[in-house]
Write a structure and sequence with these properties.
By secondary structure, the protein is of the alpha+beta class. Helices cover about 50% and strands about 15% of the residues. Among the domains are: about 90 residues, Beta-Lactamase; about 90 residues, Orthogonal Bundle (Helix Hairpins); about 150 residues, Histidine kinase-like ATPase, C-terminal domain (Heat Shock Protein 90), CATH 3.30.565.10. It is built from ten helices and 13 strands. Strand 12 and strand 13 form a beta hairpin. Helix 9 runs antiparallel to helix 10.
Length: about 475
């Protein structure tokens, strides 16, 4: 059976056409092209302005020299100013107010227009313009009363030089853009190789669930990104291992009460079968008591498992919490099931930012644990006081046998139960829940020996005096 591949959307096609590497290459080429264009335009305008200015300055200087030198030279055609000999390589003429050339001077006649005639008539002192018809730069300066000296120089050589300059700028700019494109491609290929490896690693994780870390090389931003991704993989791997361990431990702990519950239920069902011997009222009452105890044990175990599973769930929104109120609510609940055990309470105000329900559950677990190990008629001491280092100490001391030195390192492990606790009801998860709540709030939990004997549990929580 053939499988039709999913249709690629236009956005996906655009993403395929413009990969990150291609976008980096295009960005480098566009930046260089923009820079080259700006530099080329600035260079061309600067050179053009300089050449035209030099041309105008040259015309003004030569015309000024001719005006300053009034010595005369003889020729077969008559006398003429000696300074006109220096103008023989450009167009020049002496004109009157009507635009008529005065005397036979200048081999190449310049164009004469209204502005030059106005200078000759004395209306203007000088004029400078570009004659579009002949593509010539024309300068007119007053020579004498009723006369003007007109000098002109063609712009063709200047425009030719500017044309060659523009060609050179285009060729150099094009070569720079091509080089920038090639360099951008090489840099993008080398610089984005770690991103490609990271992409392949994420695809591998999504495809296979393999959480092995990615090899890291270098110390740049991409290497830091890879380190961060490896840290995330480590956290996922640790979370997966904890989940597997929790499921395995939960399966092991659930097996015993379920087996016992099944055995009792089979006995009850067998006693109700026709022809089978019946159960005495005493046996039936004992089985019912066992069934209720096993159901309570299962209920507590499942509740504790749900509480521990919240460790990997998104955190509840923290709020301002008055720890004294939390402890008093937990005490109210603990007193209802404490029997003859009394509580000696000394609480000082303390507030923090946290999850009040999680803290109340943790405090209640400590109180229930203390009641369970304390004999009837004894006292459980509960204290809350500042530690003087920005944290508070919540202390719960029971009157029981205390914690053996061999049990202390593992007492907060999930499902761990000391030899004294194995004969008592419980799931072995209560202290693990306490440790989880303390760590979620930036604190810690310790176990020691109370001054009058018994176990002393101390929870350290950050915050400030209330």
């Amino acid at each position: 059976m053939s499988v039709t591949p999913p249709e690629v959307t236009p956005a996906e096609r655009a993403g395929l056409r413009f990969s990150l590497r291609r976008r980096v290459t295009m960005l480098a080429a566009l930046c260089v092209a923009g820079a080259v264009a700006l530099v080329s335009v600035a260079a061309f305008v600067t050179v053009q302005t300089s050449l035209y200015q030099q041309l105008d300055d040259n015309l003004s200087q030569r015309a000024g020299n001719a005006l300053d030198d009034r010595s005369m030279a003889r020729s077969p055609g008559g006398n003429f100013p000696t300074a006109f000999l220096a103008l023989s390589d450009i167009q020049f003429a002496l004109i009157d107010a009507n635009g008529t050339s005065y005397g036979d001077v200048g081999q190449y006649k310049p164009p004469v227009g209204q502005q030059e005639r106005a200078v000759a008539a004395g209306v203007d002192g000088r004029s400078l313009r570009t004659d579009q018809a002949t593509d010539t730069r024309v300068l007119a300066m007053r020579y004498d009363r009723g006369l003007a000296l007109v000098v002109a120089q063609p712009l063709g050589p200047t425009r030719t030089a500017l044309g060659k300059l523009s060609l050179v700028l285009v060729l150099v700019g094009g070569a720079g853009i091509i080089f920038a494109t090639l360099a951008g491609t090489a840099v993008a290929r080398a610089g984005l190789r770690p991103v490609q490896h990271l992409t392949q690693a994420t695809e591998r994780v999504a495809r296979t669930g393999d959480l092995r870390p990615i090899p890291v090389s270098g110390d740049d931003e991409l290497a830091r990104l890879t380190h961060s991704f490896n840290s995330m993989l480590d956290a996922l791997s640790e979370s997966r291992a904890r989940q597997r361990q929790l499921v395995a431990d939960a399966g092991h702990e659930l097996r015993t009460p379920l087996t016992s519950l099944r055995t009792n239920m089979e006995l009850l069902l067998a006693a109700q079968a026709p022809g089978s011997p019946g159960l005495s009222e005493e046996d039936r009452s004992e089985i019912n008591t066992d069934v209720r105890a096993q159901l309570d044990e299962l209920t507590q175990l499942i509740g504790d498992l749900v509480e521990l599973a919240k460790e990997d769930a998104p955190r509840a929104e923290f709020e301002h919490v008055e720890l004294v109120d939390v402890v008093e609510r937990a005490l109210d609940r603990a007193r209802r099931r404490a029997g003859d055990v009394r509580f000696d309470v000394a609480l000082q105000p303390w507030s923090l930012i946290g999850d009040s329900s999680a803290l109340e559950r943790a405090v209640l677990n400590l109180l229930d644990n203390a009641v369970k190990f304390s004999p009837a008629g004894s006292v459980v001491r509960v204290g809350l006081r500042p530690a003087g280092d920005g944290s508070a100490l919540l202390e719960v001391a029971d009157s029981g046998p205390g914690v053996e030195e061999a049990d202390a390192p593992r007492i907060f492990d999930r499902f761990y139960r000391s030899s004294e606790a194995r004969t008592l009801p419980g799931s072995g998860l209560g202290l693990a829940i306490v440790q989880q709540a303390a760590q979620r709030h930036g604190g810690a939990i310790y176990v020691g020996t109370a001054p009058g004997g018994g176990a002393l549990f101390t929870m350290r929580l950050p915050g400030r005096p209330g």
